[in-house]
Amino acid sequence: xxxxxxxxxVRTRGPDEFWRKRKIFKLAAHYRGRRRNVYSITIRNVHxxxxxxxxxxxxxxxxxKELWDTRLQAGCEQYGISIDTFKxxxxxxxxxLNRKVLSDLAIWEPRSFEALVNLSRERAVVETxxxxxxxxxxxxVYGLANLKIK
Length: 150
Known about the structure:
Elements: H1 6-11, H2 14-27, H3 34-37, H4 39-78, H5 83-92, H6 99-108, H7 110-126, H8 138-141
Keywords: Ribonucleoprotein, Ribosomal protein
Protein name: Large ribosomal subunit protein bL20m
InterPro entries: Ribosomal_bL20, Ribosomal_protein_bL20_C
């Protein structure tokens, strides 16, 4: 019988390597072929996928910010006020709503959004801020000509 010596115990990899590799293989479970089965290939592909996932999370945030700004721009255009004036007047009225909430109001709650536009429009008139226009032509196109905007 051979008794294990200290150098032999240090050289053995044991269960740690198994679980470390298993973690990687679980991340690659949906891959095809050798990309799933061969560790040296799997580790490269998993690392690459994780890098893209990290970048994707940042890009998703930027995409959502752009979408919210576009929706808010369209809502403000509809009521004849620039987006900068609208946000500035809301801040001066101590109405602190972020882009997401304002764009959701513009899409799903047009009457609430119209009330916010009226508040900001009144503040802009009182303080003679630029960025007030006439109502957009889009109001007549979509049958919104009867909306009362002062």
